[in-house]
Amino acid sequence: MNPNALSMAIPLPAGLQAGWHAALELGYAVVQGRTVPVHRRHQGPLRVQKHFIDAHGQCQHIVVHPPGGMAGGDTLTLDIDLAAGSQVLLTSPGAAKWYDSFGRQAGQQLQVRQLPGSLLEWLPQETILFAGSSVRLDNVFRLHGDARLLAGEVMCLGRPASGAAFNRGLWQQASEVWRDDTLLWCEHNHVPGDSPLLASPVGMGGHTVLATLLWAGPALPPDIHQACLELPCAGRAAVSQLPGIWLARFIGDSAEAAHHWLRGCRNLIYPFSHGRAASQPRIWAS
Protein backbone atom coordinates (compact mmCIF):
# COMPACT_ATOMS: atom_id res chain seq x y z
CA MET A 1 0.00 0.00 0.00
CA ASN A 2 1.35 3.40 -0.95
CA PRO A 3 0.57 6.22 1.51
CA ASN A 4 1.16 8.71 -1.30
CA ALA A 5 -1.69 7.19 -3.34
CA LEU A 6 -4.50 8.93 -1.44
CA SER A 7 -7.45 10.26 -3.44
CA MET A 8 -6.30 9.01 -6.85
CA ALA A 9 -9.02 8.49 -9.45
CA ILE A 10 -9.65 5.01 -10.86
CA PRO A 11 -9.99 5.06 -14.67
CA LEU A 12 -13.42 4.06 -15.91
CA PRO A 13 -13.26 0.44 -17.17
CA ALA A 14 -13.77 0.02 -20.90
CA GLY A 15 -17.28 -0.98 -21.86
CA LEU A 16 -18.93 0.34 -18.69
CA GLN A 17 -20.67 3.31 -20.23
CA ALA A 18 -24.27 2.38 -19.40
CA GLY A 19 -25.51 3.35 -15.95
CA TRP A 20 -23.59 5.16 -13.24
CA HIS A 21 -20.55 3.22 -12.01
CA ALA A 22 -18.58 3.98 -8.90
CA ALA A 23 -15.68 2.25 -7.18
CA LEU A 24 -13.75 2.75 -3.95
CA GLU A 25 -10.51 1.17 -2.72
CA LEU A 26 -9.54 1.52 0.94
CA GLY A 27 -6.44 0.29 2.74
CA TYR A 28 -5.58 0.48 6.43
CA ALA A 29 -2.45 -0.19 8.48
CA VAL A 30 -1.12 0.36 11.99
CA VAL A 31 1.12 3.41 12.35
CA GLN A 32 2.54 4.29 15.80
CA GLY A 33 -0.04 2.13 17.54
CA ARG A 34 -3.08 3.53 15.71
CA THR A 35 -4.93 2.31 12.64
CA VAL A 36 -4.86 4.88 9.86
CA PRO A 37 -5.93 4.96 6.20
CA VAL A 38 -2.90 4.41 3.96
CA HIS A 39 -4.68 3.96 0.63
CA ARG A 40 -7.77 5.59 -0.85
CA ARG A 41 -8.66 5.51 -4.52
CA HIS A 42 -12.03 6.27 -6.08
CA GLN A 43 -13.92 6.43 -9.33
CA GLY A 44 -17.28 8.15 -9.55
CA PRO A 45 -19.56 9.14 -6.67
CA LEU A 46 -18.30 6.87 -3.90
CA ARG A 47 -16.12 8.40 -1.18
CA VAL A 48 -15.29 8.32 2.51
CA GLN A 49 -15.56 11.20 4.94
CA LYS A 50 -12.59 12.24 7.07
CA HIS A 51 -11.60 9.36 9.31
CA PHE A 52 -11.91 9.36 13.09
CA ILE A 53 -9.52 7.46 15.38
CA ASP A 54 -10.95 6.60 18.79
CA ALA A 55 -9.08 6.37 22.08
CA HIS A 56 -8.30 2.70 21.44
CA GLY A 57 -6.68 3.30 18.05
CA GLN A 58 -9.61 2.03 15.98
CA CYS A 59 -10.17 3.87 12.69
CA GLN A 60 -13.78 4.77 11.92
CA HIS A 61 -14.76 5.70 8.38
CA ILE A 62 -18.13 6.66 6.85
CA VAL A 63 -18.65 5.47 3.27
CA VAL A 64 -20.71 8.00 1.31
CA HIS A 65 -22.59 7.56 -1.97
CA PRO A 66 -23.65 11.18 -2.70
CA PRO A 67 -26.48 10.38 -5.20
CA GLY A 68 -28.29 8.67 -2.32
CA GLY A 69 -29.81 5.92 -4.46
CA MET A 70 -29.16 3.40 -7.22
CA ALA A 71 -31.07 3.02 -10.48
CA GLY A 72 -31.04 0.33 -13.18
CA GLY A 73 -27.57 -0.20 -14.64
CA ASP A 74 -25.76 1.43 -11.71
CA THR A 75 -22.96 -0.47 -9.98
CA LEU A 76 -20.85 0.04 -6.86
CA THR A 77 -17.55 -1.74 -6.19
CA LEU A 78 -15.78 -1.62 -2.82
CA ASP A 79 -12.32 -3.12 -2.31
CA ILE A 80 -11.06 -3.05 1.30
CA ASP A 81 -7.70 -4.20 2.69
CA LEU A 82 -6.74 -4.40 6.37
CA ALA A 83 -3.05 -4.89 7.20
CA ALA A 84 -1.92 -7.00 10.14
CA GLY A 85 -3.21 -5.76 13.50
CA SER A 86 -5.43 -2.99 12.11
CA GLN A 87 -8.86 -2.26 13.61
CA VAL A 88 -11.49 -0.56 11.44
CA LEU A 89 -15.18 0.29 11.67
CA LEU A 90 -16.97 1.12 8.41
CA THR A 91 -20.53 2.42 8.31
CA SER A 92 -22.72 4.71 6.18
CA PRO A 93 -24.58 7.98 6.80
CA GLY A 94 -28.04 6.71 5.86
CA ALA A 95 -30.11 4.11 4.07
CA ALA A 96 -28.96 2.71 0.71
CA LYS A 97 -31.92 2.99 -1.68
CA TRP A 98 -32.31 0.79 -4.76
CA TYR A 99 -34.95 2.26 -7.07
CA ASP A 100 -37.16 0.71 -9.74
CA SER A 101 -34.71 -0.70 -12.28
CA PHE A 102 -37.16 -0.76 -15.23
CA GLY A 103 -35.72 -4.12 -16.28
CA ARG A 104 -32.03 -3.25 -15.87
CA GLN A 105 -30.01 -4.83 -13.08
CA ALA A 106 -28.08 -2.76 -10.56
CA GLY A 107 -25.49 -4.16 -8.21
CA GLN A 108 -22.87 -3.82 -5.53
CA GLN A 109 -19.71 -5.87 -5.09
CA LEU A 110 -17.80 -5.88 -1.79
CA GLN A 111 -14.37 -7.51 -1.54
CA VAL A 112 -12.59 -7.52 1.84
CA ARG A 113 -9.13 -8.89 2.65
CA GLN A 114 -7.89 -9.02 6.25
CA LEU A 115 -4.38 -10.00 7.35
CA PRO A 116 -3.68 -11.75 10.69
CA GLY A 117 -4.58 -9.82 13.82
CA SER A 118 -6.92 -7.42 12.03
CA LEU A 119 -10.48 -6.69 13.14
CA LEU A 120 -13.17 -5.20 10.88
CA GLU A 121 -16.65 -4.01 11.74
CA TRP A 122 -18.74 -3.71 8.57
CA LEU A 123 -21.97 -2.10 9.78
CA PRO A 124 -23.75 -0.02 7.10
CA GLN A 125 -27.18 1.47 7.65
CA GLU A 126 -30.20 -0.29 6.17
CA THR A 127 -30.69 -1.22 2.51
CA ILE A 128 -34.13 -0.46 1.00
CA LEU A 129 -35.27 -2.33 -2.11
CA PHE A 130 -38.02 -0.39 -3.89
CA ALA A 131 -40.71 -2.20 -5.85
CA GLY A 132 -39.36 -3.00 -9.31
CA SER A 133 -35.71 -2.94 -8.27
CA SER A 134 -33.50 -5.67 -9.71
CA VAL A 135 -30.47 -5.87 -7.45
CA ARG A 136 -27.47 -8.17 -7.14
CA LEU A 137 -25.29 -7.87 -4.03
CA ASP A 138 -22.02 -9.81 -3.73
CA ASN A 139 -20.02 -9.85 -0.49
CA VAL A 140 -16.74 -11.75 -0.07
CA PHE A 141 -14.71 -11.52 3.14
CA ARG A 142 -11.27 -13.21 3.06
CA LEU A 143 -9.76 -13.56 6.52
CA HIS A 144 -6.18 -14.72 7.05
CA GLY A 145 -4.84 -16.32 10.20
CA ASP A 146 -6.66 -15.02 13.28
CA ALA A 147 -8.31 -12.01 11.58
CA ARG A 148 -11.77 -11.26 13.01
CA LEU A 149 -14.95 -9.86 11.47
CA LEU A 150 -18.19 -8.40 12.82
CA ALA A 151 -20.54 -7.75 9.88
CA GLY A 152 -24.16 -6.64 9.93
CA GLU A 153 -26.87 -5.71 7.48
CA VAL A 154 -30.53 -4.70 7.57
CA MET A 155 -32.56 -5.44 4.41
CA CYS A 156 -35.91 -3.70 3.90
CA LEU A 157 -38.17 -5.11 1.18
CA GLY A 158 -40.41 -2.38 -0.20
CA ARG A 159 -41.77 0.65 1.64
CA PRO A 160 -44.82 -0.58 3.55
CA ALA A 161 -45.29 2.75 5.34
CA SER A 162 -45.98 4.27 1.90
CA GLY A 163 -48.12 1.34 0.79
CA ALA A 164 -45.41 0.22 -1.66
CA ALA A 165 -44.77 -3.51 -1.29
CA PHE A 166 -41.83 -5.35 -2.84
CA ASN A 167 -44.17 -7.23 -5.18
CA ARG A 168 -42.09 -7.00 -8.35
CA GLY A 169 -38.38 -6.95 -9.01
CA LEU A 170 -35.56 -9.27 -7.91
CA TRP A 171 -33.24 -9.45 -4.92
CA GLN A 172 -30.12 -11.57 -5.49
CA GLN A 173 -27.35 -11.80 -2.94
CA ALA A 174 -24.28 -13.96 -2.47
CA SER A 175 -22.26 -13.74 0.76
CA GLU A 176 -19.10 -15.67 1.60
CA VAL A 177 -16.66 -15.67 4.51
CA TRP A 178 -13.33 -17.44 4.04
CA ARG A 179 -10.56 -18.11 6.53
CA ASP A 180 -7.38 -18.85 4.59
CA ASP A 181 -8.52 -21.57 2.15
CA THR A 182 -11.56 -22.71 4.15
CA LEU A 183 -15.07 -21.51 3.34
CA LEU A 184 -16.74 -20.75 6.69
CA TRP A 185 -20.02 -19.28 5.48
CA CYS A 186 -21.85 -19.21 2.17
CA GLU A 187 -25.36 -17.94 1.57
CA HIS A 188 -27.11 -17.27 -1.74
CA ASN A 189 -30.50 -15.54 -2.10
CA HIS A 190 -32.69 -15.38 -5.21
CA VAL A 191 -35.96 -13.71 -4.26
CA PRO A 192 -38.28 -12.34 -6.96
CA GLY A 193 -40.95 -9.87 -5.89
CA ASP A 194 -43.62 -12.52 -6.47
CA SER A 195 -41.75 -15.26 -4.56
CA PRO A 196 -43.92 -17.43 -2.27
CA LEU A 197 -41.07 -17.20 0.28
CA LEU A 198 -42.07 -13.63 1.07
CA ALA A 199 -45.34 -14.81 2.60
CA SER A 200 -44.35 -18.35 3.62
CA PRO A 201 -43.74 -19.17 7.32
CA VAL A 202 -40.47 -20.80 6.25
CA GLY A 203 -39.44 -17.55 4.56
CA MET A 204 -40.26 -13.95 5.50
CA GLY A 205 -43.73 -14.86 6.83
CA GLY A 206 -45.21 -11.65 5.45
CA HIS A 207 -42.62 -9.47 7.21
CA THR A 208 -40.57 -6.88 5.35
CA VAL A 209 -37.28 -6.51 7.26
CA LEU A 210 -34.51 -9.11 7.52
CA ALA A 211 -31.36 -8.34 9.52
CA THR A 212 -28.16 -10.29 10.11
CA LEU A 213 -25.18 -9.93 12.43
CA LEU A 214 -22.22 -12.24 11.79
CA TRP A 215 -19.16 -12.76 13.97
CA ALA A 216 -16.17 -14.62 12.51
CA GLY A 217 -13.76 -15.31 15.34
CA PRO A 218 -13.44 -17.42 18.48
CA ALA A 219 -16.70 -19.02 19.60
CA LEU A 220 -18.73 -16.77 21.89
CA PRO A 221 -18.99 -17.84 25.54
CA PRO A 222 -22.37 -19.47 26.30
CA ASP A 223 -23.43 -16.62 28.63
CA ILE A 224 -23.06 -14.03 25.85
CA HIS A 225 -24.91 -16.28 23.41
CA GLN A 226 -27.75 -16.68 25.92
CA ALA A 227 -27.82 -12.95 26.74
CA CYS A 228 -28.34 -12.16 23.04
CA LEU A 229 -31.25 -14.62 22.94
CA GLU A 230 -32.85 -12.85 25.91
CA LEU A 231 -32.67 -9.33 24.45
CA PRO A 232 -36.07 -7.63 23.98
CA CYS A 233 -37.07 -7.86 20.32
CA ALA A 234 -39.87 -6.15 18.37
CA GLY A 235 -39.98 -9.02 15.88
CA ARG A 236 -38.59 -12.54 15.71
CA ALA A 237 -34.92 -13.31 16.36
CA ALA A 238 -32.55 -16.23 16.84
CA VAL A 239 -28.82 -16.84 17.22
CA SER A 240 -26.63 -19.80 16.23
CA GLN A 241 -23.05 -20.80 16.99
CA LEU A 242 -21.60 -22.57 13.96
CA PRO A 243 -18.01 -23.76 13.33
CA GLY A 244 -16.03 -20.53 13.05
CA ILE A 245 -19.15 -18.35 12.70
CA TRP A 246 -21.70 -16.94 15.14
CA LEU A 247 -24.89 -15.73 13.47
CA ALA A 248 -27.81 -13.58 14.68
CA ARG A 249 -30.98 -13.12 12.62
CA PHE A 250 -33.96 -10.77 12.95
CA ILE A 251 -37.25 -10.77 11.03
CA GLY A 252 -39.80 -8.01 11.55
CA ASP A 253 -41.34 -4.91 10.06
CA SER A 254 -39.14 -2.07 11.31
CA ALA A 255 -35.59 -1.14 10.34
CA GLU A 256 -35.32 0.80 13.60
CA ALA A 257 -36.27 -2.31 15.60
CA ALA A 258 -33.77 -4.38 13.61
CA HIS A 259 -30.94 -1.93 14.28
CA HIS A 260 -31.90 -1.75 17.94
CA TRP A 261 -31.70 -5.53 18.35
CA LEU A 262 -28.50 -5.97 16.31
CA ARG A 263 -26.77 -3.17 18.19
CA GLY A 264 -27.89 -4.74 21.46
CA CYS A 265 -26.15 -7.96 20.38
CA ARG A 266 -23.08 -5.94 19.38
CA ASN A 267 -22.97 -4.31 22.83
CA LEU A 268 -23.00 -7.74 24.48
CA ILE A 269 -20.36 -9.20 22.15
CA TYR A 270 -17.96 -6.24 22.29
CA PRO A 271 -16.16 -6.95 25.59
CA PHE A 272 -15.32 -10.41 24.19
CA SER A 273 -14.53 -9.36 20.61
CA HIS A 274 -12.72 -6.08 21.38
CA GLY A 275 -11.81 -6.29 25.07
CA ARG A 276 -13.76 -3.15 25.96
CA ALA A 277 -17.28 -1.73 26.13
CA ALA A 278 -18.90 -0.82 22.82
CA SER A 279 -19.20 2.77 21.65
CA GLN A 280 -21.52 3.98 18.92
CA PRO A 281 -20.34 5.91 15.83
CA ARG A 282 -21.69 9.46 16.08
CA ILE A 283 -23.46 9.16 12.72
CA TRP A 284 -25.85 6.55 14.20
CA ALA A 285 -27.28 9.20 16.51
CA SER A 286 -27.95 11.74 13.74
From TrEMBL:
Subunit structure: UreD, UreF and UreG form a complex that acts as a GTP-hydrolysis-dependent molecular chaperone, activating the urease apoprotein by helping to assemble the nickel containing metallocenter of UreC. The UreE protein probably delivers the nickel.
Entry GO MF terms: nickel cation binding
Gene name of this polypeptide: ureD
PANTHER family: UREASE ACCESSORY PROTEIN D
Single GO cellular component term: cytoplasm
Domain of life: Bacteria
Location(s), subcellular: Cytoplasm
Protein family according to the UniProt entry: Belongs to the UreD family.
Record flagged with keyword Chaperone: yes
Transmembrane regions: none
InterPro entries: UreD (IPR002669)
Protein name: Urease accessory protein UreD
Keyword list, A-Z: Chaperone, Cytoplasm, Nickel insertion
